[in-house]
Amino acid sequence: MQNYINRIVRAAKLDVNLYEEVEADKGATGQAMGVVVLSSIAAGIGSMGITGAKGIVIGAIMAIITWYAWAYIAYFVGVKILPEPQTKAHPGELLRTIGFASSPGIIRVLAIIPGTAGIIFLITSIWMLITMVIAVRQALDYQSTLRAVGVCIIGGVIQAIIVMILFSVLEGGHLKPV
């Protein structure tokens, strides 16, 4: 357990060696999923005034789905569209590094303190974006941070489109009379 907590802290501290470590540790996929779930539960608690308790469960399920989808999208974009000559990766490596990149999100639990939600969510979102770029750069063996930023931007746009389509289909299904 102490090793797990240490990994979470190191990921949040932008420790490049941590991302290399979890990239290579095939046994860390469950830990990475745990970080994603902890981060989403923290966000749910932090925004309970808006979402209620149901938001925690739905948020955790959506976080796991989007984490998984994001890892495969980043893999495809990074390996097939924007590879560097030394780029070698497997989707599992991205699952692990990206999962740990969500570690700053655990701090979102503090947004439950009245009047702090906006600033806490802003800070953690920027922080998580930075950890995401590091995670992608390390998993794809990039020399260029800018290329990792490109993967995150392209992947983020693709994921946003997919999520919007899914929500419109699901929402549309609930609004239509039977």
Key attributes of the depicted protein:
single chain; 178 residues; mainly alpha; globular
Strand-pairing-aware structural class: mainly alpha
Task: Work out the helicity level.
Answer: over 70%
Distance between the termini: 50 Å
Tally of separate domains: 1
Number of helices: 7
Which blocks of ≥5 consecutive residues have pLDDT under 50? none
**Total strand segments:** 0
Rg, please?
A: 17 Å
General shape: globular
Q: What can you see in these coordinates?
A:
By secondary structure, this protein is mainly α. It has one domain. The protein contains seven helices and no strands. It has helices spanning 2-12, 16-24, 29-46, 48-81, 91-101, 117-139, 145-175.
Strand and helix map with partners:
Elements: H1 2-12, H2 16-24, H3 29-46, H4 48-81, H5 91-101, H6 117-139, H7 145-175
Helix pairs in contact: 2-5, 2-6, 3-4, 3-5, 4-5, 4-7, 5-6, 6-7
Outline:
With 178 residues, the protein is mainly α.
